């Protein structure tokens, strides 16, 4: 299957990229589209000209299927024509932002796929939290997208320069930070480079931080509902209740998401490649390779803490995230092992039924 130049131009409006390849064996009648909304009872997709509902193929509805293997907002898919059309194939993703779902049972939950930039919004009215920002950064580092921190409600802060210094102490050196007023089109113009043709960005942050306000300002119309935040804790109620991909006048696409109260790591994060690379490097200087950084002699980490070269809050945050990643990695490994065993048992059962009853 090959796209005509006209079809490719239409799909470009919903973020289609020139490096997306279609399966060679895809039927000619298959319809390329992008998932723009996910509901419990189905999906809304866009084919570059119009949006319409679609249902997933039966295999995507299997109870024990990993949620990351189902269609998600941002996915490019192939549809089988019908009433309604059916999502048959998920095209390869170049990025997947996910978190571990809430609850005791381990499960990865997609937030958005095929995004180039994750815009992490934090409000300067009391919402800013360095520890939560570190958690966002860990999730994004594992996604394949790059991170841009957007500090909203900049008009409510008296000393932005000092705050930006504090933020810089939390972030890796190459992380970009913008302080904006989400209600001011001129102020948010600094975000346009991440929202140009062929680019997709996703907004993440707490309820009330200004995601819907920013979306409305980028669109130039009041499309997303907004509400005032509570004065005593700067938190808002959910106005966005589901993830939605929106085409922007700037030429790119934006995925708005509900506010996230819980950010559980998946176990696939790598702190050594993220904002804690300095601590990971420092630990290699300890006298003993298995140093627990408690009371061992020659511990470079303890020395840095005592000399004030390593902030104790960052160290405790690193320890918490490291332990959570290790625990979640064990949960992920156990889940994959169970799936492998179930697959083997299923094949063995199928073979026994075939031998007993013949091919059916």
From TrEMBL:
Q: Which positions bind Zn(2+)?
A: 286, 291, 293, 299
EC id: 3.6.1.-
Q: Where does GTP bind?
A: 152-155, 205-213
Catalytic EC class: hydrolase
Q: Does the keyword Zinc apply?
A: yes
Q: Which PROSITE patterns match?
A: ENGC_GTPASE, G_CP
- Domain CP-type G, which positions? 104-263
Domain EngC GTPase span(s) in chain numbering? 113-261
* Any Pfam family the entry gives: RsgA_GTPase
* Co-factor(s): Zn(2+)
Oligomeric and partner information? Monomer. Associates with 30S ribosomal subunit, binds 16S rRNA.
What is the annotated role of this protein in its UniProt record? Answer: One of several proteins that assist in the late maturation steps of the functional core of the 30S ribosomal subunit. Helps release RbfA from mature subunits. May play a role in the assembly of ribosomal proteins into the subunit. Circularly permuted GTPase that catalyzes slow GTP hydrolysis, GTPase activity is stimulated by the 30S ribosomal subunit.
Q: Tell me the protein's name.
A: Small ribosomal subunit biogenesis GTPase RsgA
Which organism does this sequence originate in? Tahibacter amnicola
